[in-house]
Design a protein that fits this description.
By secondary structure, the chain is mainly α. It contains four helices and no strands. Helix 1 packs antiparallel against helix 2, helix 2 packs antiparallel against helix 3 and helix 3 runs antiparallel to helix 4. This is MFS transporter. InterPro entries: MFS_trans_sf. Keywords: Membrane, Transmembrane, Transmembrane helix.
Amino acid sequence: MARKLSPHVSTRIGLIILPVSYALIAWGALQGVLSAVLAGTVAASSACYGFVYLGGLSGVLDVAGDQKSRASAGYFLMAYIGFSIPVITTGALIDALGHSMALTLFGMALLGGAIVVCVR
């Protein structure tokens, strides 16, 4: 489904799904509800890979012109950095502030970032 959408629409759909799925994961983790964590994870993986990642890659390749190889290499580099930084940051926040506060702060940052990107 995501491949048939324009890159902008695909990315926006992913950015709408992502904060909701993260909230489900965080709530499930804090409350000990495995089914919520699993459902949130399925939704988040769909949002991140299916919509945001592939939509973004498609958009980058659309504007890359004859530099598609360089553009995709740069996109993959930024994607891997983007996959790593949230995990490291959340771990540091958990060590400093505890699970509940860290997950809440990260969720608020995620929501804020998604809103900013969707609006632009």
